[in-house]
Design goal:
Helix content: 55-70%
Structural class: alpha+beta
Distance between the termini: 148 Å
Radius of gyration: 39 Å
Number of strands: 8
Length: about 375
């Protein structure tokens, strides 16, 4: 009977105590979250309840397992397994706590500052910091797990002795990966590009969606994703439309007839912009920028608060101006000359002097003389 009750009390008591402590901790976090709604700290800490309970359960089982006296022949293996679970759960819990602290700090910063560019910069830095923390904690946890094995502890001295050579070999082999990692840190703290920035890379216009230590993802306007190494942004030029201020100036071009009413087009541009919510009201203008033998080029200049709005303003102005010209001034649209060509006589000239002699007049006389010649 003792052989049955002892393991049930030890194992069952550890699991039951873990559930009770976990429930009580979660209850306290929920109450704190409801009481302090201005900070997301307590709600974010609740995400760590699973690794928290694993740590408690593994720690209690690891400490009380010898008292259970179950599978005593395999006690070393079971103890080793519980130790590995405890290390892994602890690393998981540390990552969740660090994420909650960093996310809370970012939320407070975003609420206190209304500059969208600075907020995006901090968001980029926070994301990369969390990735570095997670990678560091993961490496330390794996190293701690390996050191629990006696064979790995015995090999520690030889590993340390060859660390210099291995570091050189690894550095040469992973040169591209290391350069991307350093480029990621340079992007995070150098404010070159941030999550949410509008960029143009290799002729593609899009928004930065994700930045990691090794690659960067750009979401294009047609929902495609372009994944590029972060070293690209530290070694090649690219356009960042969101750096500094997101305000932008755009242009719209038309090719119209030389008789187009330019002054009326200026007035119509003003009316279109006043009815367009995407226009920020900073500036506008309309000028003739070029001419050809058949048309003249008219350019409208408009402004907006960001890249998305400037696109909306441009397409709105282009469409409504063309519609207005078509309905009220159709003569202003480009036209193609379709007049009949003048046929010159053989050896003749198209000048006015010759038209009375050997020019068009001679052609007319021959046209009248042909019937007489035929009757003779």
């Amino acid at each position: 009977m003792e052989n049955v009750l002892r393991p049930l009390i030890v194992v069952g008591g550890s699991v039951l105590l873990t559930l009770v402590i976990g429930w009580a901790t979660d209850l306290l976090l929920r109450k704190a979250d409801a009481r302090h709604s201005e900070t997301p700290m307590w709600g974010l800490l609740r995400r760590g309840r699973i690794p928290y309970m694993l740590v408690l359960c593994a720690a209690m089982l690891r400490g009380a397992y010898d008292e259970a006296r179950v599978l005593e022949g395999h006690s070393a293996g079971i103890g080793q397994t519980l130790t590995l679970v405890l290390i892994g759960a602890t690393a998981w819990l540390v990552i969740r706590i660090a994420a909650a602290i960093v996310e809370t700090t970012y939320t407070r910063y975003a609420r206190a500052h209304h500059d969208a560019a600075r907020v995006r910069r901090v968001r980029t830095q926070v994301t990369l910091i969390m990735r570095v923390v997670a990678a560091t904690v993961g490496v330390v946890a794996v190293a701690a797990m390996l050191l629990t094995f006696p064979a790995m502890r015995a090999a520690g001295a030889s590993l340390l002795a060859s660390a210099g050579i291995l570091g050189i070999v690894a550095g040469v082999a992973a040169q591209s990966t290391l350069s991307n990692m350093f480029a990621g840190l340079q992007i995070a703290f150098g404010d070159m590009v941030r999550i949410g920035d509008t960029v143009v890379v290799d002729g593609e216009w899009g928004t930065v969606e994700e930045i990691t230590l090794t690659f960067l993802t750009v979401r294009t306007w047609d929902e495609r994703r372009i994944t590029m190494p972060v070293s690209y942004f530290t070694s090649k030029p690219f356009e960042n439309w969101s750096r500094g201020t997101p305000q932008m100036t755009g242009t719209v071009f038309w090719h119209v007839d030389h008789t187009a009413p330019v002054e009326l087009m200026r007035e119509r541009l003003r009316d279109i912009l006043r009815e367009c919510p995407a226009w920020d009201g900073r500036a506008y203008g309309l000028d003739v920028t070029d001419t050809t033998p058949n048309t003249m080029q008219v350019r409208a200049l408009v402004t907006a608060k960001d890249a998305d709005d400037i696109w909306t303003v441009r397409v709105t102005v282009r469409e409504q101006m063309l519609r207005w010209l078509t309905e009220h001034h159709p003569y202003a649209l480009p036209r193609v000359n379709t007049a009949d060509a003048v046929v010159l006589p053989r050896g003749g000239s198209s000048s006015n002097g010759n038209s009375n002699g050997n020019g068009n007049g001679a052609v007319t006389r021959r046209a009248h003389e042909t019937p007489r010649t035929g009757r003779g």
